[in-house]
Amino acid sequence: MAWANTAACPPQYGLYETDACGRQTLVGCTKSGVVDVAFNGVPSWVRVWFNQGAADNSVSLQYSDAARLYMGEHINPQFDLDYAAWVTTQPPAQSPLLCSDGNG
């Protein structure tokens, strides 16, 4: 078990700051911890993302490719559903020429 850190946080569980040009910087994670479950020689067969001590005590299972192949339709889709929902909230990419932060 490890506490979630910003660098390893899946994008859909990230906490972001947005600058005046709409660029996002990852500054934290909405999940408080992660457990790697090893199986069949795969160290991160499934990663269990969770919140401890929060009103949202939900878990989300991030499956390795090997786990997905092995389990087929029997996976819990929440991680993928959360990612798909996050993708729909992302702004379109802007040309760097459209927004100047004064450094260029």
What's the short version?
This protein is an alpha+beta fold and 104 residues long. The chain is built from two helices and six strands. The protein has helices at 65-71, 78-88, and strands at 2-3, 14-18, 24-29, 33-39, 42-50, 59-63.
**Distance N to C terminus:** 43 Å
Helix percent band: 10-25%
Biggest sheet, spatial arrangement of strands:
1-4-5-6
Subunit organisation of the chains: single chain
- Report the uncertain regions: none
| Overall body shape | globular
Structural class: alpha+beta
Strand residue content: 25-35%
Q: How does this model look, in words?
A:
With 104 residues, this protein is of the alpha+beta class. The protein has a domain at 2-73. Helices cover 17% and strands 33% of the residues. Strand 2 and strand 3 form a beta hairpin. The protein is globular.
Topology summary:
Blueprint: E1 2-3, E2 14-18, E3 24-29, E4 33-39, E5 42-50, E6 59-63, H1 65-71, H2 78-88
Antiparallel strand pairs: 1-4, 2-3, 4-5, 5-6
Task: Give me some keywords for this one.
single chain, 104 residues, 33% strand, globular
